UniProtKB/TrEMBL annotation:
PROSITE patterns (UniProt xref): MI (PS51366)
GO BP term (any one): RNA splicing
Broad class of the protein's primary localization: nucleus
Skewed-composition ranges (Acidic residues): 287-313
Subcellular location: Nucleus
Name this protein carries in UniProt: MIF4G domain-containing protein/MA3 domain-containing protein
Pfam families with a match to the protein in the record: MA3 (PF02847), MIF4G (PF02854)
Family (UniProt): Belongs to the CWC22 family.
Compositional bias of kind Low complexity: 548-567
Organism encoding this protein: Forsythia ovata
InterPro entries tied to this protein: ARM-type_fold, CWC22_splicing_factor, Initiation_fac_eIF4g_MI, MIF4G-like_typ-3
Highest taxon of the lineage: Eukaryota
GO cellular component: nucleus
Length: 580
């Protein structure tokens, strides 16, 4: 009878009869038993997906996790796509369901994204408007749930508006309407570029009047900050932002949708895989066995063991991967680049939860973003100033960044070097960064390179523009800070002193070297002549001392008399030559 059941395939069997047939099969790893469980899994997933809505989604999710979603991930994705196409009004509900499943089984979210992307590509090539609208709407709500990266949304809009037609523009307007609120938060600059493209299409006037009215309505909706079209309804906001895993795929890539997952195939390790999923299901749903609740002592011991295991797992995660660090840097980068002004960026960055020791990543990313710009933007200096003023930890981290950047300044291109120098000049000029960091700069010919001289030049020229030459000179002449400025205005060696004077004079800041010039002028004669050979001076002094054995003053007078006689004889020779 089991064999006949296997041949029947999709024939409907009442649940009570199917349960009885499954009990009658002794070999639980047989192909017939696996086929029956596959049919039961397919029907169960279809039933749960079809009856989900905004009110019962919290009750459907535990029932869905009770099914083997690893084995039936293809069935789940196909069921979601069919249900969404049949009921586009429930798209946000299906996206919320996928978002919850994606937190536990990221491979399900990745598979669904690939299949929807392929559906979009095929519908776009075939000009199938109904399938195109369904795919685009599903992608929009997956972007709202942050299952799909916002770059895919911008790429999709770019492809739709590259060669605009009435249908493609209408689909693009619908897409922006659904996820414009989220794109405004995640990538305001990218969305601004899309609206500029809409404006250009509107001015060209080559599309139908009806579509032009749609674009004008979209501009009005944007002005109203997408009122009435929230990214996620409160009852569907089921996943914390840090728990969500975001997937990326390009519309130009060749996509493998793994269609074979939708078809039954015998599993040689069926029983082992089913047992593994049962254990995983208990972890997800938080089920406890009856034996664990027998005594409090046993519970405490088990909790201690579980906590130790969790600590070990956390240690392994910290030691073996940098996923969290990469995600943090990515979040910081997107926040900095998508903010309109520095106040908005500072407000958003302060909301990011940083673990102890991760504050340095914020400073590094800010400096990296600043160096990547074509020209220096004051936006980064103001943002860095705000963080230095808010927390002393950021001030110390920017000081470390200054030391690191100056030590590796020879690796930077001229444009990056210029941006970094202007960034730190802003922090110094606004007293956001303490001036003792200048002690790390040694302004000598041996200790500087062409790159470091350019850095120092731009740094001090920017400071003179910020403060003015008079105030800058006062700051550098502060007697309490002279120990920190000795490395920039060296007085240990006349050669280094002259080099510093010549350097600042050549860049138009000779006014800040007045104290150094005065010091060089009043320097003792022996120090001024230390570069001359010492042996010659010793011989001259020795020859003069043999003139007389009297005091040192007499020897000096003798040497002076010989010098005067030699000069008189030279004058006589010159006069004779002139007469001749």
């Amino acid at each position: 009878m089991a064999m006949n059941l296997g041949r029947s395939g999709g024939v409907y069997i009442p649940p009570f009869k199917l349960a009885r047939l499954m009990k009658e099969i002794d070999d639980k790893s047989s192909v017939d038993y696996q086929r029956m469980t596959w049919d039961a899994l397919r029907k169960s997933i279809n039933g749960l997906v079809n009856k989900v809505n905004a009110t019962n989604i919290k009750n459907i999710i535990p029932e869905l996790f009770a099914e083997n979603l690893i084995r039936g991930r293809g069935l789940f994705c196909r069921s979601c796509m069919k249900s969404q196409m049949a009921s586009p009004g429930f798209t946000d509900v299906f996206a919320a369901l996928v978002a919850v499943v994606n937190t536990k089984f990221p491979e399900v979210g990745d598979l669904l994204l690939r299949r929807i992307t392929l559906q979009y590509q095929r519908a776009y090539k075939r000009n199938d408007k109904s399938q195109l609208l369904a795919a685009v709407k599903f992608i929009a709500h997956l972007v709202n749930q942050q299952v799909v990266h916002e770059l895919i949304a911008l790429e999709l809009l770019t492809s739709l508006l590259e060669k605009p037609t009435d249908d493609s523009v209408e689909v693009a307007v619908g897409f922006v309407t659904e996820c414009g609120s989220m794109l405004q938060d995640l990538s305001s600059r990218g969305l601004h570029g899309i609206f500029e493209r809409f404006r250009g299409i509107l001015h060209e006037g080559e599309i139908d009047k009806r579509v032009q009215f749609l674009i004008e309505g979209l501009f009005a909706l944007r002005k109203a900050k997408f009122h009435g079209y929230p990214a996620v309804r409160p009852e569907l906001d089921l996943v914390e932002q840090e728990d969500q895993l975001t997937h990326e795929v390009s519309l130009l890539d060749e996509i493998d949708t793994e269609i074979a997952l939708d078809v039954f195939k015998p599993d040689l390790q069926f029983l082992e895989n089913e047992k593994k999923y049962e254990e995983l299901k208990k972890q997800i749903l938080g089920e406890e066995s009856e034996d664990e609740a027998d005594s409090e002592g046993e519970l405490e011991d088990e909790e201690d063991e579980e906590s130790d295991e969790e600590d070990e797992e956390q240690m392994k995660i910290k030691d073996e991967t940098e996923t969290n660090l990469v995600n943090l840097r990515r979040t910081i980068y997107l926040t900095i680049m998508s903010s309109v002004d520095f106040e908005e960026a500072g407000h958003k960055l302060l909301k990011i939860k940083l673990e102890p020791g991760q504050e340095m990543e914020l400073c590094i990313m800010l400096l990296e973003c600043c160096s990547q710009e074509r020209t220096y933007l004051r936006y980064y200096g103001l943002l860095g100033q705000r963080f230095c003023m808010i927390n002393k930890v950021h001030q110390e981290n920017f000081e470390k960044c200054f030391v690191q950047q100056y030590s590796m300044i020879h690796r930077l291109e001229t444009n990056k070097l210029r941006n970094v120098a202007k960034f730190f000049a802003h922090l110094l000029g606004t007293d956001a960064l303490p001036w003792h960091v200048l002690a790390y700069i040694w302004l000598t010919e041996e200790d500087t390179t062409s790159s470091s001289r350019i850095f120092i030049k731009i740094l001090f020229q920017e400071l003179s523009e910020h403060l003015g030459i008079r105030l800058l000179n006062e700051r550098l002449s502060d007697p309490t800070m002279q120990d920190c400025f000795d490395s920039i205005f060296p007085k240990d060696n006349p050669k280094n002193t002259r080099f510093a004077i010549n350097f600042f004079t050549s860049i138009g800041l000779g006014g800040i070297t007045e104290n150094l010039r005065e010091y060089l002028k009043n320097m003792p004669r022996l120090i001024m002549q230390q570069q001359k050979p010492v042996s010659e001076s010793d011989d001259e002094l020795g020859g003069a001392s043999t003139v007389s054995d009297a005091s040192g003053s007499e020897s000096k007078s003798g040497s002076s008399s010989t010098d005067t006689s030699e000069t008189n004889s030279d004058d006589r020779r010159r006069k004779k030559r002139r007469r001749n």
